Amino acid sequence: MNFYGVFIGIDRYASPSINMFVDEVAANRKLDTDKVAALADGRTYVGTDAVSNGLIDGIGSIPEASDYLTQQIGEQASVCWY
Questions:
Q1: From CA 38, how far away is CA 20, in angstroms rounded?
Q2: 55: which of 1, 23, 33, 50 fits an S-S bond (Cβ 3.0–4.6 Å)?
Q3: For residue 26, which of 14, 34, 15 has the smallest C-alpha distance?
Q4: Residues 12-21 pLDDT 10s
């Protein structure tokens, strides 16, 4: 089997997961599915690009993120390190 055949085989199993990911991001970020699909090409976005594309709310530190989550959920948020 050549590499193209391997790619086709992987793509058959990856496509449903990618589509589910795109649908979930679009729904939860309130973005157009076509826009999210165009962004979901495997790239990593720097923070400012992620903000301008609506993929994240903002850029900040871990304490700022914890405070934001605490405000959003109405109880103290804790940060887990893995």
A1: 14
A2: 50
A3: 34
A4: 666 888 899 9
